[in-house]
Amino acid sequence: MKKVRIGMIGAGVMASLHMDNIKKTKNAELTAVCDVDLEKAKTAGKKYNCKVFGDHKELLNGKVCDAVMIATPHYFHTTIGIDALNAEHHVLVEKPISVHKSDCERLIAAHKNKKNKKLVFAAMFNMRTDPHYKKIKQLIDSGELGELIRVTWIITNWFRTDAYFASGSWRATWKGEGGGVLLNQCPHQLDLFQWICGMPKKVHGFCSIGKRHDIEVEDEVTAYMEYKNGATGVFITSTGEAPGTNRLEIAGERGKVVFENDTLTFIRNEVLANKFIKTSEKPFARPDVWNITIPIKGNGGRHAEILQNFVNAISKGEKLIAPAEEGIRSVELGNAILYSSMTAKPVEMPLNSRAYEKMLKELIEKSKFIKKTVKKTDGDIGKSFNE
User: DSSP string covering 32-82, please?
Assistant: First the structure.
């Protein structure tokens, strides 16, 4: 079978991880690397023995690859993604697929173009491969948990130091990154939130800007959501809390699922909660429950699995785990939380993408924030993953 030739656009820390994985992926080969920092690209090119470019358009025009993977600062995901699709290259884009919903719409429109629809277009939502989350989704989709009542996710173990934010001039700025914890650290959790429970009908957001760090974007967030069936959701995240928590709790008519500390528990009601409320004659009675620890086999949440799926989709027509079109949902959810906070009003979903884009442009134009230091630091990227 002919190997899928992949070009890496971006040569930073995440790109290095992906290039290592491409080397290990079946029926794939890394043929090119591109970065605006040409020296960085040359270093990667020498290490991985591939062609080097300083401009992504030169890479695309060079016909040196069949597909590209985009791992650049967030705003470039849209422009480079559109260019790559229009140059008839398959695309795998890092999270988030774009900074805001309007850009997501533009990127997706490029893929829906008659000429480009045949191209494979995927997103790096690797947490969808985690067997814990796959099992939780199965419990809900199958009806085993019953109708959704409440979902709460506390994900505050994204602790970051000032040295992290000082490591790049683009980080944690409206102009360079477009947002904070919602856009950088939490796209995976926001994707899983909607993948498992669906999109809410209304969002109330409460965001603190630069509360724990010297940054101009959000670093502490609490969001309250309302669903069509009357269920509620709460999403809490922070980059300034230590020790942090990662606890997902979903309550339905048939009980409650809790995922924390690598343990998945299903506390199952013997009688539906709504039915018990109506039928029990005892004022303080509760349904009897079964406490079930669900055994989970295998590892998940690995970038390599999404990469192999992407290659298989190109070469064998395999169904994508994370179609990039679905990436608009996590972006929209994060945008809605921030927009609600900024306007001090609840947001009716779907979010008005043009209104959000206008607000973001105003934040950029009015920004007077200046980073005092910009330092290049070394660190173990693996420590940043909440897997």
Answer: EEE-SSHHHHHHHHHHHT-EEESSHHHHHHTT--SEEEE-S-THHHHHHHH
